[in-house]
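PROTOCOL LOG
Step 1. Enter all chains and additional molecules of the complex.
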Amino acid sequence: MRALLFPALPLARVQVMRVIVYAMVALDVLTLSSDVLSHARNPGYYAPVLFARWLHLPAVTPLVAYTLLALILGGCAVALAGRRPRAAGAVVAVAFTLWMLYSNSYGYVAHDHLALMVAVAVLPTVPLPRTDGRGDGPDASSEAAGWALRAIQIAVVCTYFFSVIPKILYSGSLAAWGNSAILTWASIRRGSVVAHWLVETMPWIFVPAQWAGLALELLSPVVLLLRGRALYVAVALYLGFHLATLVLLGIHFLPTVVCWAAFLPLERLPVALRRRVSGRSRRR
Amino acid sequence: MPTPRRLGALPVLWRTLAVLLCLGVLLTGALTRSNDLFPLGVLDQFSKGTDPAGEVVNTCLQGRRGTGEWFDIPFGSRSVGIGRAEVENTLEQIREDPELLAPLAAEYDRRHAGQEPLTELVLCQRITSLEDGTATGEEEFVVVVRWSAP
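Step 2. Run joint prediction.
Step 3. Record the structure below.
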């Protein structure tokens, strides 16, 4: 159990993950979840989810929306600059959670932010590398870093695996969903030119595509056990799935996609970058 | 390779409980089909399989100024201030109270300040019939709710 939830992973991997996550959060509030700003003008549609009701959150106002936006962007900027990333991350965690509660309390709940919300919650729990006399070297690792990365990985996997249950409950069985016309439905409602072309010329392709999607969702927990090349192939497979839904339906799941980075040896990136920079300076 | 920094018993305990709690809430949300538990609610996007011999209902919005032509208005925060899914999930309330469309018209007018304000807004549906999982026949247009400016 301890090895599963608390693998000792490099602190450098968490440092790179912080850059990816806080850059994504800043992009997210300015684009994907910027509906909070317009929700401030639609109080009649406010239908607070449970956690929003527990917190007694009133309908969002322009003042509250812009204050949260400033806190999130300010916190992300500070964390990205590497200044007090844990404190700045804690501010982002609170403000971004409130922001997402508002984004999803106006009649529609999106499901692509689970892993990103977990990421902003767990990253501040990872202690920074020690800089005192016991200073950590570049290869330092910790169980706290391992747990945070594992939590993000589990959230990514849950995003797929737990979507299987409602398919059974709503459609009667997995076979009923797999053999349904759900991709035709989605293509007609929000499909790209490519999707409409497929509906007209080869609609038979959607049923095997639905079964392939189901297989990816059902098998997603296996990714938690993979290592090395098999893991990278699996990550590429899931990113390919998202590329296909982007091309066909304009659905990118970007907040989940970036969290797949938690599976990768990101600590090698700074080393590679450093080598590249030093290589350039030597050539000058 | 330096020795990894290990966690004490208490940090291990609360972190383990946090993971188990979140998984428990996710499972509860999935089994009770509850979106109310966001961000740990049911992950039910695209989970209702469409009948291959059923129909596809595409919710739409049309507006007009004075006695001018009706024109399509896109949903979204950069148009009427709210997305199609939010409107679809609030359809029953909108049917009972068409005034819920007023803020959509106001937001659209605010974003088109140089033009005459909207005098009417129609929430509509374009319905496509399916046969063997693909579109068939002509699209049907249905007016769901009509809102007129006071």
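Step 4. Note key features.
The beta strands of chain B are 55-64, 71-72, 120-131, 134-148.
Chain B has two domains: 9-44, 55-148.
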